[in-house]
Amino acid sequence: MALQRTAGVVIHLTDYGEADKIVTLYSPTLGQWTGIAKGAKRSIKRFVNKLELFSHLDIDYSDQYALPIINQAELINSHLALRQNYQNYTAATLVCELFRSWTHANDHDPQLFSCLIWILERLCQHHAWQEAMVLFLIKFYSRLGYQPNLLVCATCQRLENHSGPFRFQASHGEIVCRKCQSATSAVMLSINTVKLLSKALVLPLDKLNRLRFTPSSTNEALALFKHYDRYLLDREGPSWNFIKT
Question: For residue 2, how far is the Cα from the chain centroid?
Fold first, then answer.
């Protein structure tokens, strides 16, 4: 079988036996993909400092077996800075966990891959990690087809400054204004948070740095996505427990 080649970001690693590693990455051409790197823990030339979480790689692999064999890896970006800051590392770990939960083999999405590269690079640059995560999450769920409806109140179809605070209802992915609220368990959002998230939905990745979230808006938005993710998956991802909201 001829060698295959793909780029990808490592989103999970597992030791296998004494010398091997099972590597899961997200690829713009293959989606979520898993292969085994034989002798990776002993390799000096082929894999040293390459098969690490968050690493952006070009890999050569052969797929004649059920579990493809990674023959060689070329490092594009190690995203080393993520391993030197606890909060940024935690945020990047959540990103990888979300990709593992929401993506699948042979279901690739180049735009989703662009979001992955964007958030890892932004976190490496030591931008405010909470704001960066909010911007990533709004793009991520929108791309998955779970874009929250933040344009108007789902009941009265209006969005007015005096109508807040709003409640986000995860079961329908929509907001309800103060006048139309009946539930008490949904996430609370200020009008400022609603408008910022709405702007983030329409801006391209390279324009998102124009937006500035206040600490309160950042916390509200993170709480929204934590609540939304838990509802959609019917469980709470472990990494969310380390994200302060």
Answer: 33
Which strands make up the sheet holding 149-153, listed edge to edge?
149-153, 174-176, 166-169, 187-189
CATH code that applies to domain 4-81? 2.40.50.140
User: What gap in Å lies between CA 194 and CA 138, rounded to an integer?
Assistant: 12
- Render 49-107 in DSSP notation, one character per residue: TTS-TT-EEEEEEE-SSSS-EEEEEEEEE--GGGGG-HHHHHHHHHHHHHHHHH--BT-
Residue 160, Ramachandran bin (φ over 0: left; ψ between -120 and 50: alpha; else beta): beta
Contact 178, 153 (CB under 8 A): no
Query: Residue 242 has which token pair?
Result: 């380390």
For residue 110, whether the previous peptide bond is cis, meaning omega lies within 30 degrees of 0, is no
Distance CA 201, CA 150 (A): 10
Q: How much is the pTM?
A: 0.92
- What is the number of alpha carbons within 13 Å of residue 202 lying toward its C-beta? 7
Q: Which residues contact 215 (CB under 8 A, 6 or more apart)?
A: none
Q: What is the pLDDT of residues 127-173, one digit of tens each?
A: 789 999 999 999 999 999 999 999 999 999 988 887 789 999 998 99
Which amino acid is residue 130, in one-letter code? Answer: Q
The amino acid occupying position 138 is I
Instruction: Tell me the domain boundaries of the chain.
Output: 4-81, 128-242
